[in-house]
Amino acid sequence: MLASHQIATPTISYFEHNEERRVPEMIERLSAGAQIALVTDAGTPAISDPGFRLVRAALDAGIRVVAVPGASAAIAALSVSGLPTDRFTFEGFLPARDGSRRRALDALCAEARTMVFYEAARRLADTLAAMIAAFGDSRPAAVVREISKTYEETVRGTLLDLERRFRATPALGEITIIVAGASTGAAASDGALITVEVPNAIEALREAGLSLKQASAVVAKLSGRGRREVYQDVLKSREDDDSADE
Amino acid sequence: MLASHQIATPTISYFEHNEERRVPEMIERLSAGAQIALVTDAGTPAISDPGFRLVRAALDAGIRVVAVPGASAAIAALSVSGLPTDRFTFEGFLPARDGSRRRALDALCAEARTMVFYEAARRLADTLAAMIAAFGDSRPAAVVREISKTYEETVRGTLLDLERRFRATPALGEITIIVAGASTGAAASDGALITVEVPNAIEALREAGLSLKQASAVVAKLSGRGRREVYQDVLKSREDDDSADE
């Protein structure tokens, strides 16, 4: 692209796999007075794209960092999704493995804000199926693909509509999935959710008279995690605290 | 701006206070075959900006809606903030009134994702003070102002650093506040938060052997609400269910 615009500025690669090596090189050159532009072939650097480490290192070194505002598929897709835009969460790519993806989605089942996900086309139908398992089949959602390109397409419907559609006709291109938050219909009852750190939950349950095992079982049930896993975490966090307060 | 580029396309106003009246007019014209571009003087339409109602109405009427991806202060500011960008929440403008603002911030005190807020310059120091009350004074944050303009400035530090700085030297211009999520230091334990609906929490506690009153007390403690309030809610939701399952 630079060549087609006769831009002769030297370029070097910067991506996830050489980021750790590149950052100190770049900071050295910046400290010596160089100016460096971090560009990406699509979207905004540092948003589901390498760049965060370089920005942080530059700021830590006292180097001025300025944004050149540009496109982001998350914002563009959200703006045409027809789903509430006043508050939203950006989740990026879900874990690729089934179990991790399920846990990530389960942790979002009570999220009240509109959620924005990126997904690879080949995983779209499976991810929509996993979303149905976590959020229910009637949750409103939109799939936006190839945004800003010739074959841009926005498909709206329930998660079930979308899963059927993209199971039958697999999509190509880059995908943004927008999912309405939980209980958009019942948005009035915003006091009906609690978010709490696990150690605080355990402590409150112990104070109410439950044993550590019982408390772990309750927390495991509420969080969708294994009872043994929660119990081990609790034991571990107690050990960490030992030197301080026992 | 259109005039300076000799663009003669007719324009009409569309803003928060005439949105309800404009939407049906626009849908009528679109249905008759017109093409309409929704533009804004800054940022992306429908993101902390009017547009959502028109997009939704157009989609409901079967009209194709296409995004022209452009700038968003939220994304641009986040990309230069040096704070984690892999997941974030966009909160827009907080309520202007003290009590509502405090409640909105308290509800975010356990939010683990990086948070993005918009704020008016004249309220910046007070909002930072309210954030200190909700999140603690050592939470890492960044204030980005006048993004993409001549006097663009990014100031990073703890909430306390930022509050002192902007209390002493009030900022001008449009402000984006980026606040790190809770326990960024302990980011490894991403299973350490649970979000749960109150009725489900009560049910799990009752199954663990607590009385309804004890369960309400635990939930009240964890959610920061009054015990009586939670108890009344629970009784009420039971009454609502009565016809169905008792």
Brief descriptors of the model:
homodimer, 246 residues, alpha+beta, five-stranded mixed β-sheet, 6 strands, 42% helix, flat
How would you characterize the overall build of this protein?
Chain A is flat, with a radius of gyration of 23 Å. With 246 residues, chain A is of the alpha+beta class. In chain A, β1 (88-93), α4 (98-106) and β2 form a beta-alpha-beta unit. The longest helix of chain A is centred in the C-terminal third of the chain and has 19 residues, at 227-245. Helix content of chain A is 42%, strand content 15%. Chains A and B meet through α2, α3, β1, β6 and α7 of A and α2, α3, β1, β6 and α7 of B.
Task: Furnish the topology, listing elements before pairings.
The structure is a homodimer of 246-residue chains.
Chain A: H1 19-31, H2 52-60, H3 73-81, E1 88-93, H4 98-106, E2 114-120, H5 124-135, E3 140-145, E4 153-158, H6 159-168, E5 174-179, E6 193-197, H7 198-207, H8 212-223, H9 227-245
Parallel strand pairs in A: 1-2
Antiparallel strand pairs in A: 2-5, 3-4, 3-5
Helix pairs in contact in A: 1-2, 4-5, 5-6, 7-8, 8-9
Number of helical runs of chain A? Answer: 9
For the sheet with most strands of chain A, the description reads: 5 strands, mixed
Please trace the helix and strand order of chain A, writing H or E for each element: HHHEHEHEEHEEHHH
Order the strands across the largest sheet of chain A as they lie in space: 1-2-5-3-4
Give the overall average pLDDT of chain A: 86
Percentage of residues in strands of chain A:
5-15%
Shape of chain A: flat
